[in-house]
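Hi U.,

Before I forget, here's the chain from the pilot set. I'm dumping it here mostly so it's searchable later in email.
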Amino acid sequence: MTSLLQFSFSPVPGHPRRRRQQQQQQRIVASADRQALFSRIAPVYDNLNDVLSLGQHRIWKRMAVDWSGAKEGSNVLDLCCGSGDLAFLLSPKVGDDGQVTGLDFSREQLVVASSRQNMQSKACYRNLKWVEGDALDLPYSDCYFDAITMGYGLRNVIDKYKALKEVYRVLKPGSKASILDFNKSTDELRTSIQGWMIDNIVVPVAAGYGLAEEYRYLKSSIQEFLTGEELEHLALKAGFSSAKHFEVGGGLMGNLVATR
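Structure:
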């Protein structure tokens, strides 16, 4: 199960076209594995986030929303929305004249998000809608959104460059994408602390929910992620005019802010 997010694509011998087809098939399988993972953890995802971060994830998510530049009347996309935390924070910001779309590839996560919306009495939550979709092939026209947020999604996307290209494509000129995730630190001490916390806190707590194997992937997924500087370079390569990565949560988390 640990190998779910540990995919290495070795060269495939033979004709280039056949090699591309086989690599595409491998990516489909990898994406399906990740989709299944997040579907399994959907029922307890929110509760685990609160327990594991001692509620701090709510602060980081508010920061991510603030960095997005979303405001009254904005049309906003929360990409890889999961159970909707960022979307629910965006909703009152954009108001009755705005629209928040939460998109995720896990139907189970979207069911949880929709249920949360139905249980809330806030009138502003009427501006929320949920879409099952692929971050690598967004079902929207160019220059469609005023702002985009993405919480803990980019690290789990198979092709990060293509995902950023899609984010760039559907953003309006001058608009921002705010992307929150675990920080891959270049500091050995922080890396050691992060790894220790995953091994000795995250996984044991997840085990209490019967999800130890599902949460063991975190360590390897962070190791295979990009550093803040690498994320900035990738965003610029994808076409963004500027990109700045901020370390938050004592350097354990990071937030990329990219402007089209």
